[in-house]
Amino acid sequence: MPRLVEGYPAAMGIGRRALHKVLGDRAIASGAEVRLGITATRIKQHDRSVTVDFSDGSQDSFDIVIGADGVYSQTRGMVMPDAPKPQFTGQAVWRYNFARLDDLDGLHVYNGPIGVGLVPVNSALMYIYVTTPEPGNPRYANADLASAMRGKLANAAPQIRSLAAQITDNEGVVYRPLEAMMLYGDWHVGRVVLLGDAVHATTPHLGQGAGLAIEDSIVLAEEIARHPDVASAFAAYRARRFERCRYIVETSLDICRGQLGQGPLIDNAAASAESLRRMAEPI
Asked: pTM of the entire structure?
């Protein structure tokens, strides 16, 4: 993996809760006011401001509104009601934590119709991800998750089958249908702009979804500081981000479709290496 900053590793593993704490602590330290447990229920735009009604009955006015609220973005739905909706890809991902293998010195990727990867998180922990075809987008009962995941790996490589035997905790299985969407048009309406999965929700085949969202926030902040008006700032932000995000979304979908037999089977390791090379380029 290409190093982006001298003296730091090219990549690192971090648990979701630890990442949330890092981001939350830094946001609060920067002076941001964080309000939990409420959602925006109405957005009304004016020439120089945006009024937002919240689910707790309060109302506030802002210079701009940024919708960073995920693949099912309520903000997108309010300001772009005709925008494309996320689509189920026909595939799902299963994840499970294990004690880290002694020889796991990096990301291990296994090619095939069922994609498998081993991902180190820290010196003691790793997780496995498994992408499987799921025609009709079925739902699995919580009591059946561990046995169902083991069954998906019945024909995997010997090392993976050995790990699969340890999948016994239903509560430890994380199962997610894979959905994707790309907003090919504008990423803003007036003083409301979107970022992250709200505009370019990708499947996890290249592992770049969260990174793209973080990059979005950096570029958006730079362009807001650089331009005298929000329309120019938002347009410049999209112009810098669009091609990079489109590449990740569409290439990830190509890998997904190849595993489903809906297109050529993509060499996952080669595609991952190419995506890392591209993501190391300046934004």
From this structure: 0.90
Average pLDDT of the chain is 94
Topology at the third CATH level for domain 88-174? D-Amino Acid Oxidase; Chain A, domain 2 (3.30.9)
Distances (CA, A) of 4 to 77, 164, 249, 266, 278: 36, 35, 22, 26, 12
Q: Classify strands 115-120 and 65-67 as parallel, antiparallel or unpaired.
A: unpaired
CA distance 135 to 152: 14
Q: What is the DSSP letter of 143?
A: G
Tens digits of residue pLDDT in 46-91: 999 999 999 999 999 999 999 999 999 999 999 999 999 999 999 9
- SS3 category, 101: coil
CB–CB of 213/68 below 8 Å? yes
Q: In CATH, what number does 16-84+183-279 get?
A: 3.50.50.60
Query: What is the number of residues in the chain?
Result: 283
Contact predicate 152/94, CB 8 Å: yes
